[in-house]
TrEMBL record:
UniProt name for this protein: NADH-ubiquinone oxidoreductase chain 3
GO molecular function: NADH dehydrogenase (ubiquinone) activity
EC assignment: 7.1.1.2
EC class: translocase
Family, per entry: Belongs to the complex I subunit 3 family.
Bilayer topology term: Multi-pass membrane protein
GO cellular component, one term: mitochondrial membrane
Location (main, coarse): membrane
Origin superkingdom: Eukaryota
Keywords assigned: Electron transport, Membrane, Mitochondrion, NAD, Respiratory chain, Translocase, Transmembrane, Transmembrane helix, Transport, Ubiquinone
Catalytic activity field: a ubiquinone + NADH + 5 H(+)(in) = a ubiquinol + NAD(+) + 4 H(+)(out)
Amino acid sequence: MFSIIFIALLILLITTIVMILASILSKKALIDREKSSPFECGFDPKSSSRLPFSLRFFLITIIFLIFDVEIALILPMIIIMKYSNIMIWTITSIIFILILLIGLYHEWNQGMLNWSN
């Protein structure tokens, strides 16, 4: 029992030392102004590199993530179908798809899917 605790503490100590050494050795010595500035083919930048991000891109990203998670949830439902009660599975599937369709309708109704604005 004592040897297991000793080995665990030794592994913890070695891991901590390695992480501290990696942190110390990976730090940059100097912060160079040229290296921290934006690079545009050797020319000086004409405008600020910190322009505000378009909200349209953010909304499209959120919509993609929602429907990506939807696929990750629907695929196991198909596999589970033969192992579960068919009535409960059908009700759960219909409710899940209805929630997604209501969300899609809401996004369409709010104009989030129109890119032309």
